Amino acid sequence: MTPPLHQLAARIRSELKDIAKVLQRVEEGWDRARRSSDDYYLDGVALNLHGFYGGLERLFERISVLVDDARPAGPDWHQTLLNQMAQEVPGVRPAVISESTRVRLDAYRSFRHVARNIYTFNLDPAKLKDLVVQAADCFTQVQAELLAFADLLERQASR
């Protein structure tokens, strides 16, 4: 394995720790918003949900560049990248994430786009709640799959 791929395995592990912290902030912000009825906490929840998917997408981009040698481009590159991670690249790598994880993450990808393009006071609290409620389970699933991929990279390094 080349050093960049070994570094990628380490980056996956490091980034997942940071994403876990982001999700703690999502949960804390949601609790504070619920307890206080202060909508300003929802702004922080939205920002951290944006960061949750953004961190995963950064990892997916690195994988597409370093492993696949095929970073998507064009207006729908975010969607294409997520789909790419759920597909095996024959002779290169297995699927990085499962189809069920791709479906779950697509809701966060879509929200990330919305959060970047509207004023936070226009966010729908019910939609935020759905994302918050599902975030921990979604992260558990994607974390397990990304750690398995990092393990695969490390096994290849020891050959």
Task: Give a quick set of tags describing it.
mainly alpha; 159 residues; single chain; 78% helix; 5 helices
Described by the principal axes of the CA atoms, the overall outline is elongated
Distance between the termini: 8 Å
How many strand elements? Answer: 0
What count of domains describes the coordinates? 1
The chain-level mean pLDDT equals: 93
Helix count, DSSP H or I runs of 4 or more residues:
5
Structural class: mainly alpha
Concise account of the structure shown:
The chain is mainly α. 78% of the residues lie in helices and 0% in strands.
Secondary structure blueprint with pairings:
Layout: H1 3-36, H2 40-68, H3 77-85, H4 99-117, H5 125-157
Helix pairs in contact: 1-2, 1-5, 2-3, 2-4, 2-5, 3-4, 4-5
Tell me what the structure shows.
By secondary structure, the chain is mainly α. The chain has one domain (3-157). It contains five helices and no strands. The protein has helices at residues 3-36, 40-68, 77-85, 99-117, 125-157. Helix 2 packs parallel to helix 5, helix 3 (77-85) packs antiparallel against helix 4 (99-117) and helix 4 packs across helix 5 (125-157). The longest helix has 34 residues, at 3-36. The radius of gyration is 17 Å and the shape is elongated. The termini are close together. The model has no long low-confidence stretch (mean pLDDT 93).
